[in-house]
Write a structure and sequence with these properties.
Two copies of one chain form a homodimer. By secondary structure, chain A is mainly alpha-helical. Chain A has twelve helices and six strands. In chain A, the strands form two sheets. In chain A, strands 1-3-2 form a three-stranded antiparallel sheet. In chain A, strands 4-6-5 form a three-stranded antiparallel sheet. Chain A starts with a helix and ends in an 11-residue tail after the last helix. The interface of A and B includes residues 44 and 138 of A. Chain A binds a DNA duplex through α2, α3 and α6.
Chain lengths: ~300, ~300
DNA sequence: TTTGGTATTTTGCAATAGTAAAATGCCAAA
DNA sequence: TTTGGCATTTTACTATTGCAAAATACCAAA
């Protein structure tokens, strides 16, 4: 039983899950529970557990099944070892598109040849790109890339959109605070402020920041706001993954994040909404100032 | 050369195009121009023209090629004759899903059997549904439907989202008025107010109204706002297609639409934005009142 | 009942070839 | 140059079959 992509992906997620939960040694890992949680059947879960066991990260219970053992945190390796081909290919296509190496219109065969993909891999990629909204099918043959966040204009557009929906989402009538995830994000931001920010990688920083904003908007319980922000973030990620973030600005944003979460945790929603507005508009201004003088693909102030 | 789906679709679009342009008899239809406009190659355009010619709606020029003839409006038939199988199937699946006849999780085979589809048809359908955001792939096998606008809650959510973005879009700095489409929409709305509303079908009414709102938001030139509204509208269409609209309320909305466009055409953007806000919130209230007493799937006030 | 073990069924990807349809390149005429 | 006619190339859908992997059903033990 070789690890299929799904199996190693699941192993990674289970390890991550355990790192977050941090259960005491000897806790039983119930196959059905995990299967339900990760929305797959027991088969791949079982194989993933097997895999983690052979890596010495899980023990076996006397009566069968796997249990956690007392694993020092260091030995929950970032299971990135198996570089997910799909993800890499996805980013590569995005970069090629941003660099204008890919024409606006492409056929499936072209892509398949160019990136040496099987039909299935290509189908998966196109599905993903489609659902993220930067490609569409032409009526006849082939696909057309949609304009992405290539220009500063589009960039500013994305911030004005967020400036509209994020403060409004906090004032939604159905807004209910999810304390746990917010407190987790707050801690993360505090650690960044306390110095981690100077060592963490740009993509990781980007992810932490967008995770915080998404955690907040999810409290609105309005899926239109939630989806709206997530769609913007996925596009922004493609743009910002290639930039290195200027930590001198980023740290200011992180401080603001902490303050923002504190307002929310104190149930001061109106103040939080106002603060969000101010937070986003200052990021926006910064971006413009920052990109005005330098090349579009230069250093980004950014974060959020 | 039988008409393929693409060809009959193009014939329909070309007829519609001509009805809108209303060129004088004898105007030459340039294949390459049409091909570019509809983003296909010349082949299917040529076949579509051929088709329209055999239906007696186009003449031939002395030196080859097709020209328009003096066709009374009545004889530009709504080319709906060939019921697009894909579209019908799409609506059927949406309805089945809304009626809870389809489980939350389905496999491709299940769908293929249930609706008697070929692999390709199914792939096309899934792609479309995916891009509209109400289905997603599971990590293993199969697909999961996402919660749609099934509840009144979600319904109200969609209006609050619009209430946030639509008035804001009018105030976007990049806002530039597209007079032609707006004036066309205004005329359409005026005709509705003048009595057409009592005879036009519910889906047609829905389309006219959403077209107006989309025409307005497109002036913002901010693709995040534009996309946001379009996504909401696609979902709303699925819900509202099954409802018959109460014309006594709808006509009020149409009058407001005329007024709204007039404000825009007079360049009173601030007033237009305020008016939009009031317009949307009254629709929203109406919806709630209307659905509160009756069944969810009863008569909708609606329109916008 | 809950759980893991095992066997069985089902799924959907891969590879292939054939084919209709769409895209494209070239040419001649206006 | 613009345009339509025509021929050719390319694309992507269809329909196979085989197979690995995922889902599922059933059973026994705790």
């Amino acid at each position: 039983m070789q690890p299929t992509p799904l199996i190693s992906e699941l192993a990674k997620q289970i390890a991550e899950h355990l790192r977050a939960e941090n259960p005491q040694a000897g806790t039983r890992l119930v196959e059905r529970k995990l299967a339900e949680r990760f929305r797959v059947s027991r088969s791949p879960i079982r194989s993933a557990l097997q895999l983690l066991h052979t890596q010495g990260m899980l023990g076996v219970a006397g009566s069968g099944g796997f249990i956690t053992i007392d694993t020092p945190e260091a030995s929950w390796p970032e299971q990135e070892s198996i570089p997910n081909n799909d993800e890499a290919m996805y980013l590569r296509i995005a970069q090629d598109r941003l660099d204008n190496l890919l024409p606006e219109r492409v056929t499936e065969n072209e892509l398949q040849r160019r990136y040496d993909l099987t039909r299935g891999e290509l189908a998966r990629l196109l599905r993903r790109i489609l659902s993220e909204g930067w490609i569409e099918r032409l009526p006849g043959h082939g696909w057309a890339f949609l304009p992405m966040l290539t220009s500063i204009e589009a960039y500013k557009d994305s911030y004005r959109f967020r400036l509209t929906i994020e403060p409004a989402a906090i004032l939604e009538p159905g807004f209910v605070l999810d304390r746990a995830p917010l407190e987790a994000c707050r801690q993360q931001q505090q650690r960044l402020v306390d110095g981690e920010i100077w060592s963490v990688s740009s993509p990781a920083l980007f992810d932490m920041n967008s995770k915080l904003h998404e955690a907040i908007i999810e409290c609105s319980r309005n899926s239109f706001f939630i989806d709206g922000l997530k769609r913007v973030d996925r596009l922004r990620r493609l743009m910002e993954y290639r930039q290195s973030l200027d930590r001198r600005y980023a740290i200011i944003r992180c401080r603001e994040h902490v303050e923002l979460v504190d307002l929310l945790l104190a149930d001061r929603r109106l103040d939080a909404s106002k603060f969000m507005k101010q937070h986003l508009s200052s990021v926006s201004v910064e971006k413009v100032m920052n990109t005005a003088g330098t090349a579009v693909q230069g250093v980004s102030s950014g974060d959020d």
